[in-house]
Amino acid sequence: MTRPILALAAFLTLLSSFLPARAEDKTIAKLSTDIIGNAVEVDAIDDPKVQGVTCYWSHFNRSLIDRLWKMKQTSVFLDPSNSGINCQRTAKDVTIGKIDLSKSGEEIGHEKISFFFRDLKIVRIYDAEHNALVYVSYSTRITEGSAKSAVSAVPLENANVVWTDGTPEKK
Question: Could you say which of 94, 95, 165, 170 would form a disulfide bridge with 51 (CB–CB 3.0 to 4.6 Å)?
């Protein structure tokens, strides 16, 4: 009975690696954390609607060996929901397209950390009062929320900023 379950788990884990990833991300580093293949990946993600801003996002990826080894302790399909984020102006000029100006912001990236129920997300929020773009990385679950999050802000005050949809009013 155990063998078919292990085979199915290995197949589904492999299958999940072919799920679509975030748009326009580039893995710039993969740092091994142990001898069984677990790693912290660092991705460079260009904001699709804000030219001149890049976010650097670190997150943990469990190896297939670790998933199978710890199968009785935790879900085989689950990666830890810890992540870090740092966003910077990477160009002299910043061009901002039509972005969501609401308090809930707009998702610019995500990654599945569980085959069915959990995601890591990156959301951009515009802080009109402080003239900054705020990027939040957090995990989601269907039944319970998670307090694990990280935040980074990109001030626009001394930048050459062009709003293609018109400059929003300060609140």
Answer: 95
What is the reported pTM? 0.73
Q: List, for residues 137-153, the tens digit of each pLDDT value.
A: 887 765 556 667 899 99
| Alpha-carbon span 22 to 150, nearest angstrom | 18
Q: Measured between alpha carbons, how far is 78 from 146 in angstroms, rounded to an integer?
A: 14
Spacing of C-alpha 137 from chain mean position:
6
Residue 135 CB neighbour total at 10 angstroms: 25
Residue (of 88, 152, 156) closest to 122 by Cα position: 152
What are φ and ψ of residue 100, in 5° steps?
-75, 120
Tell me phi and psi for residue 166, to 5 degrees.
90, 140
* DSSP three-state, residue 159: coil
Biggest CA–CA distance in the chain, Å, is: 64
Residue ranges per structural domain of the chain: 2-163
What CA–CA distance (Å, rounded) separates 170 from 163? 14
pLDDT digits (tens, 9 = 90+) for 48-85: 999 999 999 887 776 555 555 555 555 544 445 577 89
